[in-house]
Amino acid sequence: MLNAGIIGVGRYVPEKVVKNTDLEKIMDTSDEWIRTRTGIEERRIAGDDMDTSDMAFEAAKNAIEHAGISPKEIDLILVATVTPDQPFPTVACMLQDRLGATNAAAMDISAACAGFMYGLATAQQFIVSGTYRYVLVVGVEKLSKITDWSDRNTAVLFGDGAGAAVVGPVSEGRGILAFDLGADGSGGKYLYQDRYIHMNGREVFKFAVRQMGESCIRVIEKAGLSKEDVDFLIPHQANIRIMESARQRLELPVEKMSKTVHKYGNTSAASIPISLVEELEAGKIKDDQVIVMVGFGGGLTWGAVLLRWGR
Ligand code: UT7
């Protein structure tokens, strides 16, 4: 049986920082409200010259370099996003061209904030079946272009950014050991986009608290492990209160959960890979550790991936 794991990562966030105090000037909100209800202090917003595919390209380039492979070795590109440059050609196809990944098939995945989890699980399946060797998975969003800046219920929450991972063969016992994906389409009405994002925050909050915890437990069981085996948790960075509920469910100490929500807000499909890169850079993730990543989002969707770090 082949094992598939993350062998290279990269991230990109726009330079422009928008602080809560900047938002106070354009809408009826306060730094105090945003911090206490969400944990967000600031977010990055991409300029007009930087669309979704541009951020994806920067993150992907870094991940490929980090993995030490050539773009021509990539067999499949999966881009998780709900904010593509346009419906088609996909961001994945745009990336395929810009990276020179001429041997890769390419498609976008639309599973909102759980998109990167759907991408990792799909990549793993292609690799363990022996179909493909290297799959590039990107989570990227330019949520600022679908944000209604006059709606304080949503505008304070989101940010732009990209994270990428190269998934490839790893040694036995390492890599992705289990995943748990799911959806509840009956909750689609609670979080959707027409021109802009619309959200029933309380309903999404309840769903998130329930599914984040339960999905973590399911993925641990599927891997044949127990809560005590988990070394580090990377939850989707939507709201510190939701993240905390997942951490408490796993009975992990605070230092074993990734937190980047204060710096970037909710970057949807990008939040988990951005956090992963930052934790690796900070030396918080080491070889052989058991990492659980878990996300939830519009659809409604959820997904968790458990992996043992290292090649
Ligand atoms: O990636 C998935 C994306 N979605 C999520 O993760 C969202 C999940 N939900 C949440 O994170 C929370 O529900 C929110 C942060 C969105 C809201 O927090 P809450 O504790 O559920 O607040 P609430 O919706 O119950 O609103 C409380 C009050 C309301 O005023 P009234 O009706 O009690 O007078 C809101 O109008 O806070 C008001 N409010 C605000 N006040 C200042 C809502 N947004 C703001 C704001 N600034 N930005």
From TrEMBL:
<protein>
    <recommendedName>
        <fullName>Beta-ketoacyl-[acyl-carrier-protein] synthase III</fullName>
        <ecNumber>2.3.1.180</ecNumber>
    </recommendedName>
</protein>
<feature type="domain" description="Beta-ketoacyl-[acyl-carrier-protein] synthase III C-terminal">
    <location>
        <begin position="220"/>
        <end position="309"/>
    </location>
</feature>
<feature type="region of interest" description="ACP-binding">
    <location>
        <begin position="237"/>
        <end position="241"/>
    </location>
</feature>
<dbReference type="GO" id="GO:0006633">
    <property type="term" value="P:fatty acid biosynthetic process"/>
</dbReference>
<dbReference type="InterPro" id="IPR016039">
    <property type="entry name" value="Thiolase-like"/>
</dbReference>
<keyword id="KW-0443">Lipid metabolism</keyword>
<dbReference type="InterPro" id="IPR013747">
    <property type="entry name" value="ACP_syn_III_C"/>
</dbReference>
<dbReference type="InterPro" id="IPR004655">
    <property type="entry name" value="FabH"/>
</dbReference>
<feature type="active site">
    <location>
        <position position="113"/>
    </location>
</feature>
<comment type="subunit">
    <text>Homodimer.</text>
</comment>
<keyword id="KW-0012">Acyltransferase</keyword>
<feature type="active site">
    <location>
        <position position="266"/>
    </location>
</feature>
<keyword id="KW-0275">Fatty acid biosynthesis</keyword>
<comment type="function">
    <text>Catalyzes the condensation reaction of fatty acid synthesis by the addition to an acyl acceptor of two carbons from malonyl-ACP. Catalyzes the first condensation reaction which initiates fatty acid synthesis and may therefore play a role in governing the total rate of fatty acid production. Possesses both acetoacetyl-ACP synthase and acetyl transacylase activities. Its substrate specificity determines the biosynthesis of branched-chain and/or straight-chain of fatty acids.</text>
</comment>
<keyword id="KW-0511">Multifunctional enzyme</keyword>
<comment type="function">
    <text>Catalyzes the condensation reaction of fatty acid synthesis by the addition to an acyl acceptor of two carbons from malonyl-ACP. Catalyzes the first condensation reaction which initiates fatty acid synthesis and may therefore play a role in governing the total rate of fatty acid production. Possesses both acetoacetyl-ACP synthase and acetyl transacylase activities. Has some substrate specificity for branched chain acyl-CoA, determining the biosynthesis of branched-chain of fatty acids instead of straight-chain.</text>
</comment>
<dbReference type="GO" id="GO:0004315">
    <property type="term" value="F:3-oxoacyl-[acyl-carrier-protein] synthase activity"/>
</dbReference>
<comment type="pathway">
    <text>Lipid metabolism; fatty acid biosynthesis.</text>
</comment>
<feature type="domain" description="Beta-ketoacyl-[acyl-carrier-protein] synthase III N-terminal">
    <location>
        <begin position="107"/>
        <end position="185"/>
    </location>
</feature>
<keyword id="KW-0444">Lipid biosynthesis</keyword>
<keyword id="KW-0963">Cytoplasm</keyword>
<dbReference type="Pfam" id="PF08541">
    <property type="entry name" value="ACP_syn_III_C"/>
</dbReference>
<keyword id="KW-0808">Transferase</keyword>
<dbReference type="InterPro" id="IPR013751">
    <property type="entry name" value="ACP_syn_III_N"/>
</dbReference>
<dbReference type="GO" id="GO:0005737">
    <property type="term" value="C:cytoplasm"/>
</dbReference>
<comment type="similarity">
    <text>Belongs to the thiolase-like superfamily. FabH family.</text>
</comment>
<feature type="active site">
    <location>
        <position position="236"/>
    </location>
</feature>
<dbReference type="Pfam" id="PF08545">
    <property type="entry name" value="ACP_syn_III"/>
</dbReference>
<dbReference type="GO" id="GO:0033818">
    <property type="term" value="F:beta-ketoacyl-acyl-carrier-protein synthase III activity"/>
</dbReference>
<keyword id="KW-0276">Fatty acid metabolism</keyword>
